[in-house]
Amino acid sequence: MQRKYFGTDGVRGAANELLTPELALRIGQAAGAAFRESAVNRRVVIGKDTRISGYMIETALVAGFTSIGMNVLQLGPMPSPAVAMLTRAMRADLGVMISASHNPFMDNGIKLFGPDGYKLSDVKEMEIEARMSDWSPTMLARSRDLGRAKRIDGVRARYVEFVKSAVPRDLSLEGLRVVIDCANGAGYKVAPEALWELGAEVIAIGVEPNGVNINQDVGSTAPHALQRKVLEMRADIGIALDGDADRVLVVDEKGDVVDGDQILALIAETLQASNRLTKAGIVTTIMANGGLETHLASKKLGLIRTPVGDRYVIERMRAENYNFGGESSGHIILADHVTTGDGLVAGLQVLAAIRQAQRPASEVCRRFEPLPQLTQSISPASRPTPAALNNLAKTHEARLGERGRIVIRASGTENLVRVMAEGENSTVVRTVVDDLCELLAGNQPANSLAA
Question: For the domain that residue 411 is a member of, what is the CATH number?
Answer without folding.
Answer: 3.30.310.50
